From TrEMBL:
Its main location: membrane. It is a multi-pass membrane protein. It is found in: Membrane. Keywords: Membrane, Transmembrane, Transmembrane helix. Residues 11-136 form the Methylamine utilisation protein MauE domain. It comes from the Bacteria. InterPro entries: Methylamine_util_MauE. This is Methylamine utilisation protein MauE domain-containing protein. The chain crosses the membrane at residues 6-24, 44-72, 78-100, 121-141, 153-173.
Length: 182
């Protein structure tokens, strides 16, 4: 694999990992379930917030499909799961933009209860949508051997961690800046 393919693959796997981590955190109570988060943000009509469970299921299906397809060396499954992730992350970016415009910097409620909606959370969703789109188009297929596929997992885990930390650091830096006119 070339360097651009490795970066795309690791970003895509990181996106899948973040979807699965978010789902596990919601199911264990460490994060807010999506119907409740949608209701708290007050961006969608009340009835639509009740369908947050559908997004919870879809994120698990898409994320798990990408991980399983990667480990199995199944390019068609990788493209299908990545297409689902691309749509989900794009919709998430649009939704977060609406939340930010309507409510300002409120808790995102996606991975935890504290991270606020910001330009950084929106850009993370956009980046993961674009990387997932590239994988859906087949621009980075799983390597042929299991060992080569397994070698990517630590890199993908590091990318996922860096994406989360980057959002946290930018939020902390923004909060530490003095407000002019206050």
């Amino acid at each position: 694999m070339s360097l651009p393919e490795i970066v795309l693959a690791d970003l895509g796997l990181a996106g899948a990992a973040l979807l699965l981590i978010a789902a596990v955190r919601r199911w264990t109570g460490a994060a807010v379930r999506l119907p409740e988060a949608l209701a708290r943000h007050r961006v969608l009509p009340g009835a639509a917030a009740g369908f947050g469970w559908f997004a919870e299921v879809a994120e698990v299906v898409a994320g798990a499909t990408v991980v399983v397809a990667w480990l199995a060396g199944w390019p068609a499954g990788m493209r299908a799961g990545s297409a689902g992730m691309s749509v989900m992350y794009a919709l998430f970016a649009v939704y977060l933009t609406a939340v930010l415009r309507r409510n300002g910097r409120v808790p995102c409620l996606c991975l935890d209860r504290d991270t606020t909606v910001s330009g950084a959370t929106i850009m993370r969703a956009v980046a993961l949508s674009l990387a997932s789109s590239a994988l859906a188009l087949g621009l980075a297929a799983p390597p042929h051997t299991l060992l080569d596929r397994l070698v990517h997992l630590p890199g993908a885990a590091l990318v996922a961690l860096l994406l989360v930390v980057l959002v946290e650091v930018t939020g902390a830096l923004r909060a530490a800046q003095p407000r002019v006119g206050r």
